[in-house]
Structure formats: structure tokens, C-alpha cells
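user: can you give me the structure for this one chain? C-alpha cells are fine.
assistant: on it. calling the predictor now.
[tool input]
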Amino acid sequence: MFTIMFGVASEADDIGPIWLKAKSDLRNRVNAMRRASSRWDRVALTGWVEADPIVYDDMAVLGTQQRTMLAGLNTPCWRADGGPAWVVHIHGVAYHPAIDWQAAQAAFATQWPGERRVHVQPFYADKSVEANIGGAVRYSTKYRAGRWMGGGFDFWPAPWMAEYYDWADRFSQGWQSMRFRMSGKAMTDPCEKNNASSVDVSYIEPMYTTSSLNSYPILYTEGGRPA
């Protein structure tokens, strides 16, 4: 399982360009590692973009490590209208049979240097592979327009929801544009002389729930009617 912090968008419309560049950079990084070592040939990745809102006042309640991480992301100037910046990152699953997770983390950290920008960890030993993948996918595609901050959970203010979901509705059809996917290279079995199938991650899909199929929330006015 892996998480990579890519950058900070000044407003929601800037999430897309950061994400599209990040997908290209991630693909190029894996291909560069494959050129350097065949051990990367079967590495396969799948993940989904997430963007967390942050405003200036949040800095007072963030931990030291989070503030250091944000400083390394070149956080943009805070918005005069009080709206949030958006921390753009990916959560996903990596298949890496010929390299350990430390090597994967080191390779990604070369592309995205900085404290806590890259986090790779093995599956939990006390859970099945299916349970690990399911948990990672559900976390990557979780739908909850809110955040944990200062020890409590707060839903986003309505203007933040409107900004984010307006962008998401224009940017992606369902999860399609929100996803990164890179399969392993086809391998030739030296004993059987057959072309073995590459590792395909296309079957790993979000586990939809009734609420997540209706992906964009209704925004209510103070009178209680839909906006």
C-alpha cells in the first residue's frame, strides 16, 4: 500500500493539472526503474487521487510533521476569500514481487523528495490479501466530505463542497479520471517458454455502496431546501 503527496492546489480547478502531471511522473518513474533493473518489470500499481482542503487557521492545530510536509510541498499563498487550498495525493495498492517495500519507497521518494511525502508499507500480516486490498481500495475511494482536525471530525462548509464537487463533476466521469493504473510487463517463462500474463490491476475496482453511487451531495440553504 502506498501514499504519495504530490502538491498543493490554490483552488479546486488546479487539482486536475497537478494530478495529470503526477500520473505521468509516476509512470515515468516506474519505467525508469524498469530500465535500470528487471526486478521492476512486474511492479503494478493502482490508486486514486484525493484532495484534502486546508486553510491558514489549520496550521495552528497541525502536528509538526504535517507542517513540515506542507512546507516541502511549496504551499501556495492563502486565499483572500478564505477558501481552502487542496493537498493533492494518491492512495493505492502496489504489487512488487521482486523488490521490497523499502526499495519502492526509496524509488518514489527520489521523484517526490521531502519529509512524509511518500509512504509505502506492506500488507497487514494478520489479514488476507483480499482484505488488505479491499481496505486499501475503500480508503482510497472513501466518500466523506469532511476531515479530522484538532481531534474532531468536521464536515466541509457548503462553499468548499460546491467548489470541489463542481470541479470533480467536470473533471471525471465517475472514478475514471480519478484513477491511476499501471500493469506489470508481460513476462516470458524461461522453463515453459510461454509468454506469461502480465500482472493486471484492472479488476481492482472501488467497492461501491448505495451512498457512493450518488457521488455528489445535495447542498442545502439555511432554509433547509436544496440549493
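assistant: here you go. The mean pLDDT is 80. The beta strands are 2-9, 44-54, 85-95, 118-120, 146-149, 152-155, 179-182, 187-188, 195-196.
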